[in-house]
Amino acid sequence: MQITFLGTSSGVPTRSRNVSSIALRLPQRAELWLLDCGEGTQHQLLRSDLKMSQLSRIFITHLHGDHIFGLMGLLASCGLAGNVQRVDLYGPPGLNEYIQAATRYSHTHFSYPVKVHVVQPGIIYEDDEFTVSCSLLHHRITAFGYRIAEKDRPGRFDIEKAQALQIPSGPIYGKLKRGETVTLPDGRVINGNQLCGPTEIGRKIAYCTDTIYSEGAVELAQDADVLIHEATFAHQDADLAFQRLHSTTTMAAQTALVAGAHKLIMTHFSPRYAPGNTIELKDLLHEARAIFPKTDMAYDFMDYGVPRRREAELTPINK
Length: 319
Description:
The protein is 26% helix and 24% strand. The chain is α/β, with parallel strands linked by helices and 319 residues long.
């Protein structure tokens, strides 16, 4: 699982930061998922090493322009290129109407299936490898945060040990690899867990923007390997954050701390903190690290590979 930040500015793009979008690459299944799709996202994808042909799911937090204005352009280009099989869109009420109106007035026709899923708090997608859930955040309009959780997998199967026990190969190996208990033809009962290495703990990503400090964000970030949280404002500008229902650096850090997240990556920064101003982005990073030391600050085209944890590392770092 690799995260690529395609846009890290809030509201408007700057010379160095585009508006909100994050790509999640799932190399084990050759898929690409997007979280939000601000204006210019397809240009950012073209400048990256990501393959647009692998795009399969897009999760939209809310319908403000800096999170959706790139959606129709991206979908239309995918259709013209003819290399996308299907795209599933997830988002709040109104997303389907937005897509329908844009396609109607722009006379756009998709050459591949596009399905819109209107989300409600809870699990919104699940397959054999992943579960995706969402919770309500606290913003000026309906906004959702997302949690993408990879399911735990049995550890490496020890074929040599199985052969030493004279366990016949075939379908039995498959059951043992899954950790199942099987009875052999000779009557022996073998627990598959005894032949597998440490469980591969599923990785968990939480994405929370736009919001002020929210219990929904804390819920999504519980024991997350990485929490991606907006930090539009410095702590000194908390009054603005409350007025506009955006987070400060300290709110993002407090969310990570309370949730027991293992890493915080801040994004969605106001252009007011450009170099040379009274408060700069480096000051925002210092503020957050004072509360939650394992904090980093995202920048456009930053890649982050989500590491795996072993069973011994399951306990949240603040417990």
